[in-house]
């Protein structure tokens, strides 16, 4: 979810204002539209500014799958920092999230909109990475 303060700014201006490095890649679009294109893939400016600390307060809490309210919730099982091997060229410190969904349906890797009451809806690229008992595990890497 994009903050009202971010609307009308370019992603680079928003990142500078929030003390983050500018992205080391060409960016088209703006926070005014809420969408931008990076290397042929669509992201939202809100997704590009998420950091590990945005998720850690919600460990073990449920995230709803938007667009399929009948689906079982995704529970945030882990939120882990990853080493930054880019020499500081990434727009944020990299991290990985691990979600567990008690749903027998394995969803393919792709963009999903997950929502948490405190975070609002967030577009996240999820990859199924295995099972743990009766739950399917999904990983989201942010770099």
- Strand pairing plus helix content: what structural class? mainly beta
Average pLDDT taken over every residue: 76
CA radius of gyration: 15 Å
Question: What is the H/E order?
Answer: HEEEHEEEEEE
Quickly count the helices.
Answer: 2
Taking the sheet with the most strands, its summary is: 6 strands, antiparallel, barrel
Side by side, the strands of the main sheet go: 4-5-6-9-8-7
The shape is globular
Distance between the termini: 18 Å
What does this 3D model show about the protein?
By secondary structure, the protein is mainly β. It has helices spanning 11-17, 45-48; strands at 28-30, 35-38, 41-44, 62-65, 74-81, 95-101, 110-116, 120-132, 135-142. The strands form 2 sheets. A 6-stranded antiparallel β-barrel has the order 4-5-6-9-8-7. The protein has a 3-stranded antiparallel β-sheet with strand order 1-2-3. The longest helix has 7 residues, at 11-17. It starts with 10 loop residues before the first helix and ends with a strand. The model is unreliable at 1-44 (pLDDT under 50).
């Amino acid at each position: 979810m994009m903050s009202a303060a971010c609307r009308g700014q370019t992603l680079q201006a928003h990142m500078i204002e929030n003390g983050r490095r500018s992205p080391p890649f060409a960016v088209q679009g703006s926070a005014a539209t809420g969408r931008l294109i990076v290397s042929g893939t669509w992201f939202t400016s809100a997704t590009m500014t998420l950091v590990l600390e945005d998720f850690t307060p919600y460990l073990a809490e449920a995230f709803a799958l938007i667009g399929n309210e009948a689906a079982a919730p995704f529970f945030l099982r882990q939120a882990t920092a990853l080493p930054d091997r880019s020499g500081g060229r990434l727009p944020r410190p990299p991290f990985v999230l691990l979600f567990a969904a008690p749903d027998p349906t394995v969803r393919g890797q792709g963009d999903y909109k997950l929502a948490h009451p405190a975070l609002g809806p967030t577009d996240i690229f999820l990859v199924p990475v295995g099972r743990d008992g009766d739950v399917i595990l999904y990983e989201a890497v942010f770099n």
